[in-house]
Specification:
Blueprint lengths: L3 E5 L3 H13 L3 E5 L2 H11 L3 E5 L7 H11 L5 E6 L3 H9 L4 E5 L3 H30 L11 H13 L6 E4 L6 H10 L8 E5 L5 H9 L16 H4 L4 E5 L9 H10 L1 E2 L8 E2 L3 E6 L3 H6 L5 H7 L2 E4 L10 H11 L6 E2 L1 H9 L5 H15 L4 E2 L6 H6 L17 H15 L4 H8 L3 H10 L5 H4 L2
Parallel strand pairs: 1-2, 1-3, 3-4, 4-5, 6-11, 6-12, 7-8, 8-11, 13-14
Antiparallel strand pairs: 9-10
Helix pairs in contact: 2-3, 13-15, 17-18, 18-19
Length: 455
């Protein structure tokens, strides 16, 4: 995407000449006839570079420079000044301007100045990004937990991060697998290179091969230019394969070969391209069961699971819940909002089928919908007040006069299916039972999907 440049000058003809020259070089150009209009455009569009005249009625170029630097210190500003007023331009440079150009300007000089300014901006942004990443390298500030289960995760990450080993992260949806993958990347020797993520379940099957391996022009209808795949885009860095259990069976041998041979063949290509990438995969599926079912290659599994790390579900680390609540409250602007002990008991007793992601969403909702500065039980969603057990970990509340075990089991199976849109594989995973066991229970209790009942 071409860089956008904002030109501010009250001289209409000069403004048009600048616009023409910059557009001819392929830049996007915004123009303004005065400083106030220019700063409104700046706030709205956040251009990559500002070129402004120094002497303008109303808001001067010096004021424009100060306003730009106050809002975005990394945005370079080139000032325009009349020939013979170089001292004024030098003053502007002391105030933060990147450089100056005199009227009438030389076109080649303008092109070079703009190119250098944009390159400097890119370097500045990359430097800031690296500093931010380096500041996070040695901690787990975005992964919160004091439980034994999470301490084991932290210990495993510390051991594996600065190696080249392939890692397989397992755990239910919402347990924070991508956060752990990013932490491994940031603590590795590849931290300065890209971290590229791809969700194998979110991309249509017919596009996934091109997304992973890239394609050459003409490889298929619509391939009008060469495309770099995610494996190559992560060159020198880390590729995060999320939901790897959903990778189509026909693509698994190609991924296995790419990982083993350290080279990739784009779709429609004839030449292999060298690959320098570390792979971290993640799944909430039972891959060993998938292997038994013939849905996942055993050799690929062992290639990915060199170092397996399991993330425990939130219900197995309830001591982390109060810590996570405070962390998410601060993250969403509720640092000074208190949670009553009763609320924390309810939150600790809730089963959290959506794990940490569901807890964060709940905390954000409580902060928005609260009735005061202390969040009480009445602020909780109805499902938590009805289903949570104060101070305990019960998932259901049985009536005093008893309940049929078979009826309870039937209701649990139906609820699991409903929560997962009647997808049997996901429902079985939710109940932590094999799929054939779920199908047996459905047949036993005559449970049929809604669409089949309508036939």
């Amino acid at each position: 995407m071409p860089a956008t440049i904002l030109v501010i000058d009250d001289d209409t003809s000069l403004r048009r000449v600048l616009e023409y020259n910059l557009q001819e070089e392929g830049y996007g150009v915004l123009t303004a006839a005065d400083g106030a209009t220019g700063m409104a455009l700046f706030a709205e569009s956040q251009p990559a570079l500002v070129i402004t005249d120094l002497k303008m009625p109303g808001m001067s170029g010096f004021e424009v420079l100060a306003a730009v630097k106050a809002q975005s210190p990394e945005t370079p500003v080139i000032v325009i000044t009349a020939f013979g007023a170089v001292e004024t331009a030098v003053e502007a440079m002391k105030g933060g301007a990147y450089d100056y150009i005199t009227k009438p300007f030389n076109r080649d000089e303008l092109k070079l100045l703009v190119r250098n300014a944009l390159e400097l901006r890119g370097l500045s942004q990359e430097n800031r990004r690296l500093k931010e990443e380096l500041a996070e390298r040695t901690d787990f500030r975005h992964i919160v937990g004091i439980s034994r289960g999470m301490e084991q995760v932290f210990a495993a990450v510390r051991k594996v991060a600065d190696t080249e080993a392939t890692v397989l992260l397992t755990g239910e949806s919402g347990t924070g697998k991508e956060l752990v993958a990013r932490s491994i990347h940031l603590q590795s020797g590849r931290h300065a290179a890209p971290f590229v993520a791809i969700n194998c379940a979110a991309i249509p099957r017919d596009l996934l091969e091109s997304e992973l391996f890239g394609h050459v022009r003409g490889a298929f209808t619509g391939a009008v230019r060469d495309k770099t795949g995610r494996l190559q885009a992560a060159g020198g860095g880390t590729l995060f394969l999320d939901e790897v259990g959903e990778l189509p069976l026909e693509l698994q041998p190609k991924l296995l070969r790419a990982l083993q041979e350290r080279e990739v063949m784009p779709v429609g290509g004839t030449n292999c391209q060298k690959l320098d990438v570390r792979v971290i995969a993640a799944t909430n599926a039972d891959l060993e069961q998938a292997i038994a079912d013939g849905a996942f290659r055993e050799d690929l599994y062992y290639r990915l699971a060199v170092i397996p790390i399991h993330l425990p579900p939130l219900r197995e680390r309830r001591e982390d819940i109060p810590v996570l609540v405070r962390h998410f409250a601060a993250k969403h602007g509720g640092k000074d909002i208190a949670f009553s002990p009763e609320v924390l008991d309810f939150l600790a007793g809730y089963p959290w089928p959506g794990n940490v992601r569901e807890l964060e969403n709940t905390v954000e909702r409580l902060l928005i919908m609260r009735s005061g500065d202390v969040i009480g039980v009445t602020d909780l969603p109805d499902k938590m007040r009805g289903g949570g057990a104060v101070g305990g970990s019960r998932v259901v509340n049985l009536p005093p006069d008893g309940y049929s075990l078979e009826q309870l089991e039937r209701e649990i199976v139906i609820e699991a299916l409903e929560r997962n849109d009647w997808n049997q594989t996901r429902a079985a995973r939710f109940l932590r039972i094999p799929r054939h066991t779920l199908i047996y229970r459905m047949e036993k209790y005559a449970i049929t999907p809604p669409q089949e009942r309508k036939r």
